[in-house]
Amino acid sequence: MGELIDFDFSLVTLDRLYKASDHLLKHKEKIEDHLRKVETGIFDLEEKIILYDLTNTFFEGTGKYNPKAKYGRSKEKRSDCPLVTLGLVLDMQGFPKRSRIFDGNVSEPSTLETMINGLSDGDNPQQSLLRPTIVMDAGIASEDNIKWLRDHNYRYIVVSRRKKAEIPDDVKMVPVKRDDKTKAVLVQAGLAYNKETDEMDIYCHSVDKEKKEESIKSQFQERFEAELLKADKALNLKNGTKRYDKVIERIGRLKEKFKRISHLYTITIHKDADSGKATKITWVRKKDKKVSGVYCLRTCQQNLNEKEIWDIYTMLTDIEDAFRCMKSELGLRPNYHHIERRCDGHIFITLVAYHIMQTIRTKLREKGIHFCWETVRVRLSSHMRISTTLKREDGKVVHIRKSSRAESNQKEIYDALDLSHEPGKIMKAII
Fold this sequence. Notes:
CATH topology of the largest domain: Transposase Inhibitor Protein From Tn5, Chain A, domain 1
Low-confidence stretches: 122-129
Number of strands: 14
Number of domains: 3
Mean pLDDT: 88
Strand order of the largest sheet: 3-2-1-4-5-11-8-7-6
Distance between the termini: 25 Å
Number of helices: 11
Oligomer: single chain
Order of helices and strands: HHEEEHEHEEEEHHEEEHHHHEEHE
């Protein structure tokens, strides 16, 4: 890499990197504002849609010198470690607009106003058309936040917090996503006006989500029935629980443990009339009236159809991809720093790297190349700088260092980015 950009990375010590991160962090807002303006100018970006979500990263260590390091619900199932939370605002093209680092145990709904306020100009209701549409998940979409968005003339499409979404009988479902090859319907959606909220509810049914939920439900059912069978067999064991009241308690604890599916069972505990002891446990599985794979969206926009709303909502996958990329490929996690500014600096450097990565991906997309970052890296990984050593007749040795010949799939990427097929200089030394 150093050869390609003509820089000696051996000069970059950890201390210099840490000091550089301190300087970057001091000017974080100015840098983000500058990148926002430059990227908007290069790609003619529009802020019609704003995506907002949060993630967290964990510490390898106690984080006791960082006031933001708090135990909370880890998105990566690392609740055993202290966390810090990253809030990120993206535009519809996937470019970061604003970021902020919160405490690891921050309440997600409490972060919205801080992150969104001031993104677009004009609080005048007549200027409401200038406001972007805010897209966010259920964790942030509290009623207070919905009210705040309405009060400040923001439009929104959010995931409903309704726990059990059931499609009303009078809602007409239409296809919004099909398989590219088979044309089979993968997702259906239907609109319904909600008089109580003056919103449109969008009921969505996903085939993939249904399969996943049914698989999970099946696993829970198997485990629940295995426990019921175990309790039934205990009735015939010498030291097994036979007292009727104790068996009722045991079944009650099982129902509580498996409350996601226990309501689907009618359980009967048979009792001996003379001894008063339980003799048998039987059960019947009821048909689940709730259709799996259903979720509900809500929006204040009543001029959009089902597909338009669903397409906008699915842009949230862009921010999920951004978080995934920053964690897996750009070094966001884990965090080894002890003090707050170094932790924040580490995260901000990762964000700056993401800006660069997204610029490259956007340039590629403009040329019809829709690769993820990992694919770009894998394709270019075999293109190397190599050294060739030749011995002359006079006994001197010639060392030539240059790029290997690029393959056709590598040339495709270089051409899209207006780069040379032979990056780096040809270096020649005679010894």
